[in-house]
Fold these 2 entries.
Entry 1:
Amino acid sequence: MRSTINLDDALMEKARLLTGTNETAALVRQALETLVRVESGKRLIAVGGTMPDAKAAPCRRSAADRHSLSASALATPMLTCWHPSFLTSERTYGPETSA
């Protein structure tokens, strides 16, 4: 779909620096995908506990990646799945690190 939109120059420059992407269409697409992922996660959180027989939503990362705090994991700006420990002050860290 083609559309004409007004974008904040400073915000676009910050997005370019953070992502390394210079193409405006790619930045907008990535922003929309991130928005959909985050809002979907918020909806899952909102219904949390109301469906006791529900199974956990699939995550895109392996269990090892989710529990690792490697430099690349810390550089990832968005979670690809939601875990209840992120909603409380009690967070789970890998065996080699601490809070």
Entry 2:
Amino acid sequence: MKFSLKLGKKDDSEDEFEELMKEEIDIAGLLPIHKWSVPEGYVEVEYYPLRAPFSYAAIVQNEETMEYMYVLDELPLTREEREGYIRLKNILEYELQAPKEGETLPEAFRRQMPAILEKHQKVLQGIDPVGLQKILYYLERDMAGYGKIDPLMYDDNV
């Protein structure tokens, strides 16, 4: 498996994607964040962001056995967002192109997304900008990342 790190100036399409994703701080203020609730019999030891505002890690400890548990806390999709995610994922399976030489999978995803979203605006009709950000997070996680374990790859403590 080959990993590459691309250094240097970003191209215009990556800037478009970042503009599309907005500032994470702005998004965090708009999201209805429901922090994970600690189960009965456990106490929260640590809670920190992995890919804020979309995913967080919680370390909890069982009060009886003193065993630790690692919990991944991701912002869930609503029913409408889930439907939009499925529709857009089906489109991406046909339209997303392979990365160019020296380009990583996430970079290729970010480069192509603005044009694909422009072309298929009706697919996400009725979904607000915050919902779109959540859908894009899950699409990048599942299609260009490692799927359900992708947030763990951003945890320096794992």
